[in-house]
Amino acid sequence: MGNSWATFGRDLHLDLTGPGGLRAALLRALRDAVRSGRLAPGTRLPSSRSLAADLGIARNTVADAYAELVAEGWLSARQGSGTRVAARVLPRTTPAARRTPGGPAGHADRPRFDLTPGTPDVSAFPRTAWLAAARRALTAAPSEAFGYGTPSGRAELRTVLADYLARARGVRADPDRIVICAGFMQGLALLSRALGTGRLAVESYGLDFHRAVIARAGLGTVPLTVDERGARTEELAALDGVRAALLTPAHQFPTGVPLHPDRRAAAVNWARSTGGFILEDDYDGEFRYDRQPVGALQGLDADHVVYLGTASKSLAPALRLSWMVLPDRLVDPVLALKGTGEWQSGTLDQLTLAEFLSSGAYDSHLRGMRLRYRRRRDQLVAALADRAPHVHVSGIAAGLHAVLELPSGTEQSIVQGARWQGLALEGLSRFHDPAAPPASRDALVVAYGTPPDHSFTHALDALLRALPPGEPGE
Ligand SMILES: Cc1ncc(COP(=O)(O)O)c(C=O)c1O
């Protein structure tokens, strides 16, 4: 065992005890020293030869550790200026923690660039058009609109939504089967409670807080494997006690693949033959770039598919407005649950959205956003082709995020290294359901929709710097 003191201008205690051998201990000790600020950004580290001599360990062990920490973004190495602690831009709160419901972080925790999925470009919220719609809606609202709302939501909104969803998403909707909610999460919670007992099938990649909402309602979840054709819905037939399946058919979250037509048919056939339900999460179905949008699955069978849409991607999560189109037999149970003390969405925002839709402002906002996101997607794909051709990108036909494949075993260190450089990224494994068979896919879920326009190019540059270098000749 070596010493635990190194001297390079200032004394530094590096604790080389602990599991995993000297190299692992040195990595841990250096990361700790940087993380805690004992090694400040810009500090020049001793040469591998002199640190090895100070610590009484092999020079190669130090050189290897330095190289790994450079790859992870903790250190930087430049010809002529030696190895230094990398410029620190980002405090260390994970974006996932920030976004977990109930946990907004303060300004101090903001990364410089954010490519994590969850929010659209909120800087593009159509403030002027929304204000104009709000003014018109308020002026026209009858006095009774200022009282307590109803569990189903305002008729004005349900009526225009029925038309819009039929036209734009192929949904079979009538206003009486639409229930307005304060976000997809509330809809999912209500549906889970309405189903009562049994299990709900989920995709093996998805959001942990959606699984938690289902569990809180007293239902078990069972994962359906996701592959390059979406969720393997044919697995449903072999599962016992499953009452419903939660799917993202238009653009699987987060792998980005559309549900294959055979799998769409298998899902609907399963629901028909068992009396079960498909819960269709159409969170970003309006954003498709190269072809016409894939129509909603609900269009195939309005008696067995619940359609769930949200304003969180198309406008802003802050609105807390979403909608469910229910099969007839779910309407009364859901309204009964929602009536007994569930929170209702604000009536004035509902009326504003109704006005926004009926005036055509929603369509024109979506047209503008589609162009903006498509431009970014093309920029991302072109930059990768140019500067990181060894990185395969998928899931780009639709939505606001893409998936970048990584060499096996590198996901965590790349996410961590990027974070250190001020770039918030999310790895694919974070979305993997721990109850599903282990998946060995290392990848990044890159939400090119998240940053504001003015910083997108810089965020993209930061992403390219964070990616692993290609092998020579790749
Ligand atoms: C997979 C998925 N489903 C649903 C939603 C919408 O959630 P909410 O309406 O609760 O904001 C999101 C986020 O926008 C999402 O990523």
Cα-atom radius of gyration: 25 Å
Helix content: 25-40%
Spatial sequence of strands, sheet with the most strands: 6-14-13-12-11-7-8
Largest sheet: 7 strands, mixed
CATH superfamily of the largest domain: Type I PLP-dependent aspartate aminotransferase-like (Major domain)
* Apparent shape: elongated
How confident is the prediction overall: mean pLDDT?
90
Poorly predicted runs: 89-108
Number of strands: 19
**What is the total number of structural domains?**
3
**Estimated share of beta-strand residues:** 5-15%
CATH architecture annotation of the largest domain: 3-Layer(aba) Sandwich
Bound molecules: pyridoxal-5'-phosphate
Structural class: alpha/beta
Give structural notes.
- The protein is an alpha/beta fold.
- The chain has 3 domains: 5-85, Arc Repressor Mutant, subunit A, CATH 1.10.10.10; 95-124 and 364-466, Aspartate Aminotransferase, domain 1, CATH 3.90.1150.10; 127-360, Aspartate Aminotransferase, domain 2 (3-Layer(aba) Sandwich), CATH 3.40.640.10.
- The chain is built from 15 helices and 19 strands.
- The strands form 6 sheets. It has a 7-stranded mixed beta sheet, sandwiched between helices. Strands 15-16-19-18 form a 4-stranded antiparallel beta sheet, with helices on one face. Strands 1-2 form a two-stranded antiparallel sheet.
- β15 (393-394) and β16 form a beta hairpin.
- α7 packs across α11 (328-339).
- The longest helix has 27 residues, at 361-387.
- The two termini are 41 Å apart.
- Residues 183-185, 207, 248, 253, 281, 283, 310, 312-313, 317, 322 line the site of pyridoxal-5'-phosphate.
